[in-house]
Each structure stands twice: as structure tokens, then as C-alpha cells.
Design brief:
Elements (H helix, E strand, L loop, with lengths): L23 H16 L4 E3 L9 E4 L6 E10 L2 E8 L7 E7 L1 E7 L5 E7 H14 L9
């Protein structure tokens, strides 16, 4: 189901999300995140952007469309990525400092453990969505 995307300054975007459990509600959330992200042509979407306080993100990456309870384990040096956009800040873009490469641990949609080594745009997407889960927005970094 396609859900409405929460936009700034809604307070849900500033709350830290809670750990997701392997239950029916999380599985429904996963599909809603994917449907909503694709409908809005997003590169990623965090659960709190559709008003759900669970640590779940969707990405447009073919191998890692869902990451549950993500945690960044490694960060390389930072660089500025220009024109970063956010579905919760429609029509705006900002230069944001991001790590060029990261390693993320989490779970896939079936709650199997995954380890992701990301660089380039995928690294930016993961950092952006994990920031959402921590109540941070790109306007906090520009």
C-alpha cells in the first residue's frame, strides 16, 4: 500500500526509531515502504517517513532493498555530496558531508543477518536513511 510521506517539520521525523521485531506488522511495513518509495521515485525511504517508529529502511538497490535494524560498523573518510534530496523535504537539495564508504550490519526482510559494504551513491542512501531512523535530517548537516 502506498502511504503518505511525512514532511518537515512533522515531529515524527525528529524521533529516534525503535528496534523492529520479526512480526506481521513489520512485514506489512516492509511492503508499504517499498511501494511508497517506488511510487515517489525515491532512492530510499525510512519507516518514520511514513509515520512508523521502527528501524526499517527501503532502498532502490537490487541486492539490498530492505535493511532492518541497520547499524553502521565502519566509516571511511568524509566528502561533500552535493544536491542531496529528501522525500520529506520536497523540492529542496543540500550539500551534505558523507562517508565515501561504509559497512552496515542489519537484517533482510526475512530477518536473516546481512553485512553490506557500500560506496558511492548507495553509501549516501544508507547514511541518509539511517540518519532518519536517528531523528536527523539533511538540513542538520548542510
Amino acid at each position: 500500500m502506498i502511504r503518505e510521506i511525512v514532511t518537515f517539520p512533522n515531529v515524527v521525523l525528529r524521533r529516534k526509531s525503535i528496534r523492529a521485531e520479526n512480526d506481521k506488522d513489520t512485514q506489512i511495513l516492509i511492503q508499504d515502504l517499498l511501494d511508497t518509495m517506488q511510487h515517489n521515485n525515491g532512492a530510499g525511504l525510512a519507516a518514520n517517513q511514513i509515520n512508523v517508529d521502527k528501524r526499517v529502511i527501503a532502498t532502490n538497490h537490487i541486492n539490498y532493498p530492505i535493511v532492518i535494524n541497520p547499524m553502521i560498523l565502519y566509516k571511511s573518510k568524509e566528502t561533500v555530496f552535493n544536491n542531496e534530496r529528501c522525500l520529506s523535504l520536497p523540492g529542496e537539495s543540500y550539500p551534505v558531508k558523507r562517508h565515501e564508504c561504509i559497512t552496515v550490519a542489519g537484517y533482510d526482510r526475512n530477518f536473516y543477518p546481512i553485512m553490506i559494504d557500500a560506496d558511492g551513491l548507495f553509501s549516501v542512501v544508507l547514511q541518509h536513511e539511517i540518519d532518519h531512523l536517528d531523528g536527523k535530517l539533511i538540513i542538520d548537516f548542510s
